[in-house]
What we know:
Elements: H1 6-12, E1 17-20, H2 28-35, E2 61-65, E3 68-72, H3 86-91, H4 94-100, H5 117-124, H6 129-150
Parallel strand pairs: 1-3
Antiparallel strand pairs: 2-3
The structure holds guanosine-5'-triphosphate (GTP), magnesium ion and zinc ion (ZN).
Amino acid sequence: MTGDGVDKVEDLLGGGIYAFVGRSGVGKSSLLNRIEPDLNLKVGRVMEKTGRGRHTTTYSQLFPLRGGYVADTPGMQTFGYPGTSTEELADCFPELRDYRAACRFRPCTHSHEPGCGVKEALEKGVIAPSRYQSYLSMLAEVQAREKSRYD
Ligand SMILES: Nc1nc2c(ncn2[C@@H]2O[C@H](COP(=O)(O)OP(=O)(O)OP(=O)(O)O)[C@@H](O)[C@H]2O)c(=O)[nH]1
Ligand SMILES: [Mg+2]
Ligand SMILES: [Zn+2]
């Protein structure tokens, strides 16, 4: 709104194809309007009660800009893993695949089980701790969902 830092974003745009992605109401469309007023994108208000956006942008659209293209996209309320089982979740992490065969238990959630091939690989430094942390936080999400299904 103040224009502060907009030039830094503009510097990143040139010749390529870019997408503005983020939660509804963070100001993706506003920022694009600021960079290129002719785009005249629809901007929504944030709900006072929740501080969330109202899903003003409803579809992704690609616009020519500075010799390249930029897409304004609809914000998402939350970002979650849509799968159903913890086994499927591990399938989504290609770097875990090679080490799962070494797990002592089947199935293994690679979180607390002894003799886990994935944790062994983590300790050896062959799996990035940040990726393992991502796996664990998604695992907690899936387990909470499975639990609520049975309650
Ligand atoms: N205070 C402040 N408000 C802003 C800023 N940028 C955008 N807004 C306001 O935030 C609200 C939402 O802006 P949008 O540009 O519609 O947000 P969006 O990310 O495109 O939202 P969706 O299209 O729903 O995904 C509007 O009321 C804007 O005026 C900013 O830098 N500062
Ligand atoms: Mg928008
Ligand atoms: Zn394991």
